[in-house]
Amino acid sequence: MAKDKKRRKGETSSEQELEAKIDRINAYLRADGAAFLDDPNISSVGIGYRVKDKNNKEQTDELCVQFTVRKKSGESELESLGTTLIPKSLEIGELVVPTDVIQREHFPSYQLVEPEAKSVRKQRLDTLVPGISVSHPDGTAGTLGAIVYDRLSGETCMLSNWHVLCTPTGEPGDPVVQPGPYDDDRVTQNEVGRLSRSHLGVAGDCAIATIESRAANPEVLDLNVRPLRLARPNLRDLLVKSGRTTGVTHGQVRRIHVTAKINYGGDTGYQRVGGFEIGPAEGFPGADNEISKGGDSGSVWLVADEEGAATDIMVGLHFAGEGRDNPDEHALACYAHSVCEKLEIALEPPAELALTADLAGRRGYDPNFLGSEISVPELSPAVRAAAVSINGSHLIPYTHFSVCLNKDRRMAYFVAWNIDGAHFRRLSRSGLRFIYDPRIDRDCQTGEEVYSDNRLDRGHIARRADLCWGPQAEAMRSNKDSFYFTNIVPQHEAFNRSSLHGLWGSLENAIFEDVDVEDLRVSVMAGPIFRETDLAYRESRVPREFWKLIAYVDSADSQLKAKAYILTQDDLLHNIEALELDPFRLWQASIGELEHRANLTFGDLREIDAFVPEYVLEEMAEGERLPAVREIRSRGDLS
After folding, report:
1. Is the model's pLDDT at 516 over the cut of 60?
2. Please, are residues 380 and 466 in contact by the beta-carbon 8 Å criterion?
């Protein structure tokens, strides 16, 4: 049976001796055995029990190093094949291990069968489940093996093979489609995510892709079990898989610690891939006695109980099988633990680990991003005492943005971020959760207690999409960082019902469109405007006003410019206090006016203010103050 740490405690002495012997042989194969694959006739080498019938089905109890060759021949023919005689035994220290030679060649399991009536496994599904058709657009069709979780970003991902999700033409960021083009050639409509990471080598034939436009259910199709544990398979273990082509089939482990030489064609050619071999399982015949066919690539092998039912123990990732004319039915699988380690994935969401580990090194907002300094605003003395401080600074750094947090209101005074519009990356939010920043006392952060069981929105201050730029790993960190509660503010229904909400959220895009922004680089600051009259709710207060300031270099005159905006329920021109559910209105304001309303000081930014009001600030005869603002009713009013 597949072994994990708990199983090892119950081993007998004979089992322990066998495992020690296997470990000795495996160490030899890792160090020296791969050299056998330089022989053009040898297709794989591994550990198994000697077979004694010509069909390679009847096993003995004699452990051996098992070779597979493309052509089994007598000594007189060896020279013509460019090969040498495999010794009858190998000396591994004081251990003498017999060898066994079987005629067999392996092929990647992407060779497809003839078209047939389309099953649910080959249809486009709104909820992805392991066992269905997926592929790179340049591929044919393979199998989504498991729903897994990226240990670096916490994202929910799909697991399959390198030759399914990547192919020789692929690279990170490429689209992935479900179903594969062989099953449905409408690849544009069927995009489901992006290739994240892949590997082809001794560690396995494996890849993961994000899930961006559909839901996911980790239970394997027709097995009704979710993989939750990893183990190493042992010889004669009973396994089961669920694949795109053959559906549910059983197999039995017959060779372990195998290194196979597989021809992936084209420029990729022969590659050495590590794993183990699976043969038919007595008492559990598959349709046409097949345990796998083309298109099953990427399906996962799970340990089965004595009745053949799947357990939650995952041991392998299917990647190859016999050729069409080879009577020896078998499959090859990568070791599941090796795949998970190489791709840095887990079978369960990494919970707090993925979103809180290693926040050290975050550099935050870059004030010199535009080539000239765009400093964050200064807090007035009246509010400075409530600002959270880390390492002597009121700025809490993340990837591409920084937060200034008000511990009394438990949300940001402001967030400052940089946008590199020329290097945006399309990343999914799937699997990412809103969580507390572990560097800051939870009492200083507004968390789930405010948002549960109501329609109150978790509103990003720095938009997630704004932050996802740069190299892939960096963009993934910023995607994750955007979900800390420090960057979130509660927004009530009146905000979401506002017809201007979309315009408010897309002000940066509107600037890109209306002004020729140099290099598509923008620096942004935004936050709520706190008022005592804000709506009280669950020991918090929901802001009724928000501000945003956008700085950029105008390509037309190479001048640094800034524009400020306020979204409010107040009528700014008449200074009428808002009713509780008045609609939001969007205003462009002078930076001086923003300073007045938000209790912030923007310093030199007033000198690059692009807003020229029709009138200037002045004191009215009655002592009232006429603000420098104008209402924005449409995108055309932004210029």
Report:
1. yes
2. no
